[in-house]
Amino acid sequence: MPIPAEAFFIDRASTVPLQVQLRRQIIAGVLEGRFRPGERMPSARHMAGVLAVARVTVTQAYAELVAADYLTSRDRAGHFVSDRIEPLPPAPAPAAGGGFDWDAVLDTRLSRAERKDRVPDWRRYRYPFVYGQADPALVDHAAWRDCARRALGRREFVALTGDLYDSDDPELVDYILRHILPRRGIRAEADQVLLTLGAQNGLWLAAEVMLGGRTSLAAFEDPGYPGLRTILAQTGARLSAVAVDEAGLDPEAIPQGTSAVFTTASHHSPTGVAMSPARRARLLERAGAEGFAVIEDDYEFEMSFAGAPSPALKAMDAGGAVIHVGSFSKSVFPGLRLGYLVADRRVIHEARALRALTLRHPPGMLQRTLAHFLALGHYDTQMNRMRRVYAERRAEMARALVANGLVAGTPSARGGSSFWLATPGGIAADRLAAELRGRDVLIEPGAPFFTDPSRGAGFYRLAYSSIPAERIAEGIARIAAAARR
Amino acid sequence: MPIPAEAFFIDRASTVPLQVQLRRQIIAGVLEGRFRPGERMPSARHMAGVLAVARVTVTQAYAELVAADYLTSRDRAGHFVSDRIEPLPPAPAPAAGGGFDWDAVLDTRLSRAERKDRVPDWRRYRYPFVYGQADPALVDHAAWRDCARRALGRREFVALTGDLYDSDDPELVDYILRHILPRRGIRAEADQVLLTLGAQNGLWLAAEVMLGGRTSLAAFEDPGYPGLRTILAQTGARLSAVAVDEAGLDPEAIPQGTSAVFTTASHHSPTGVAMSPARRARLLERAGAEGFAVIEDDYEFEMSFAGAPSPALKAMDAGGAVIHVGSFSKSVFPGLRLGYLVADRRVIHEARALRALTLRHPPGMLQRTLAHFLALGHYDTQMNRMRRVYAERRAEMARALVANGLVAGTPSARGGSSFWLATPGGIAADRLAAELRGRDVLIEPGAPFFTDPSRGAGFYRLAYSSIPAERIAEGIARIAAAARR
């Protein structure tokens, strides 16, 4: 990798000769390991031009450094960083050693709320029952690459490399309107849809639009998605945790004066239960009568393989109180970072302005690649494959759980990608998880899903989206063995 | 595009026969234009399986609809939406017609602050002096496509399709540390860098970390980037506009008690002036003594082709008070949406938690594509081409401006991609812009850059990043002619 001439600066106000300034900068770069052995220096002519110094200044500096073994010279090929210099051990960079008192000014609420239970190197475990990661074997890599190639064609490239200001790729929006939303029973028009950087971004936008900068009361499911609780906490709204039972969130438990209710009605996170039709109707009735919004996180709807699918809450929403949050992370792949909001056009208008303020728009090229992936039918094919494989794995999981005497905490009738379980005898799931990591098994303790972590101590989640079917029996056997100890 | 079986729902609690329910849904889809002429219906067997109804229910519904001309049947190929049905005029979707009183609950501050002066279809104008858009002729499309192909290889794809939680692509971070930041005189380590969704996202993250949820005082340049003012306004901080003259922002004009100062020190937006070395030193001195942060928006540094480059403010920042905001939008292409923050590791830690909360991480595949684009030298080649072409266009602009008697409002010595100009005789720039749109010319009126728009009424910006050199003379002549009228 050639070293750019722009990496050097000359201070003309200094009394240090230009040639010496240049030499010092090259030596510092080599010793600090920023310039690595074998990397090529800029030509003397180019360097002199960029720094506006005489060429002889550069050639002299180079000659001195060759003599001192920092550089080597190869005839006609130029000057290169020598491989005979030992770089210094990395020193703290000046930016870090500074005296500015950040501790006095920084609000560390967010970083303190970070989840410590994630295992970024989960791929190294043989039995990874981790939630929300992709099984590369189920992703149609070749099809995605083909779609990316189409989106990178010259004509589309020109349209997609510009600053889109606050707009979205109309082809992707059109496909979502005509082929994704109808599967959830939702009818909408283009100005009722906003593309997001995934479901997390969608939930954040919805929370900010509904709760930001006002005295509000937000109701959410307990247990529930920990990422949502962090979002809600930073809005400054008052929070009300609402219990979830076998029929989902109970609308009667929502307090008076609520501004917004957040629910995973079709497939509760983490237990997998679905809200009953009667409760759905009652929730929407109260929303209309009392003027609160309902934010529906419709994650994982595509994985509803067990039994006929039920429409989204948004499909029943004649009053227009529901903000629907969708995502392609589970169905295409998690690193994609694309999802959408569907809501009243006034809500979308505000969310669009907030999105423009915070990040402008999702990258155009990704939007178009996804549009091709959907329109060419790859999405449907991949979804069908995932559903089939997940159904097999789920059956394998159920067999192994029964065989090993591990019981499901709550039924989760409609599929999904995980089981929610109570530990045998209520033993602590975090200790079980720690023990199992030493035995090549990853499980997810339940505590982070509860506002009161102690209530979740005896629960854990086992996902099967990333573990091949043939390893499930052995993985579950190891969990049962560890639980017995 | 085949219609998915999942687009249909059966209500088993209803007294309406299943076959009639299905027929009604198909008719509604056809009439509303969601199912389009020629689209294929799911096979009866598949549909029956998905809906868990008898196959004969589906075949009967299809037969009725063929008789009624909604569908056509082709032997062995299946059933298709008929092209003999006129779709209804689009009705308001139920989600929009609802009775929920959004006006009562929505805070519309953000959407009301939207800029109305943008021209999304700027490509259709022959003389588009628009700022911040890419000239496709200068972007190395083939090289970008090649890099995307590499990032889409199987091995990298597996690593990049996962949920990265809050981390970044280490290859891209390494390249930024070793080859981008040294050009700005900045030394940093990996935990002092955070990737962002472009400069807008970087500014927003920095503003939230410094000002969010506290009683703060933010100082910013006036005139200055309108997108920043909107960001600052929504933090709830008190705001102090600081005037900019030929030597940039005056540090003495920053009020006591300031929490954060936002500056485009190296290349002021929109005038293009650079902050003098003495003022830079004084700004950092006050920051250290009074404990305020300095957020440096280092946009467009790569376009500093006129004269030797000067290091960034961050390079002088021994105390660690500077948060440096960088972007690849100007140098790679604007729709890319990738940039970075460089700051004290405690700041980066908080900004990373906020980024994870709002969107998790920039898409992995884009990060890796950019890493290849940089590491293979395409970035340097493209930058050098842009610098050369911009220098030519700038010279052509300068000639045409002089020849037409249009004077620059302030000097902008270090290049960039635009001129900042005063209108002849102080005539209103927005009227001039409106007049010129009818003559195929786009210019950018100055008012949005000022806290008091009336102070900017006699200024405008002319960018040359999107207009070929050979059209500049005619474009400028048209501006002069319109100004004379």
TrEMBL record, chains A, B:
Which InterPro entries does this entry report, sorted A to Z? Answer: Aminotransferase_I/II_large, HTH_trans_reg/aminotransferase, PyrdxlP-dep_Trfase, PyrdxlP-dep_Trfase_major, Tscrpt_reg_HTH_GntR, WH-like_DNA-bd_sf, WH_DNA-bd_sf
A Gene Ontology MF term for this entry? pyridoxal phosphate binding
User: Keywords on this record?
Assistant: DNA-binding, Pyridoxal phosphate, Transcription, Transcription regulation
Is DNA-binding one of the keywords UniProt gives this record?
Answer: yes
Give start and end of each HTH gntR-type domain.
16-84
**Transcription recorded as keyword:** yes
Please give the CDD domains that the UniProt record associates with this protein: AAT_like (cd00609), WHTH_GntR (cd07377)
Give the family per the record. In the C-terminal section; belongs to the class-I pyridoxal-phosphate-dependent aminotransferase family.
Q: What is this protein called?
A: GntR family transcriptional regulator
Its ancestry begins with: Bacteria, Pseudomonadati, Pseudomonadota, Alphaproteobacteria, Rhodobacterales
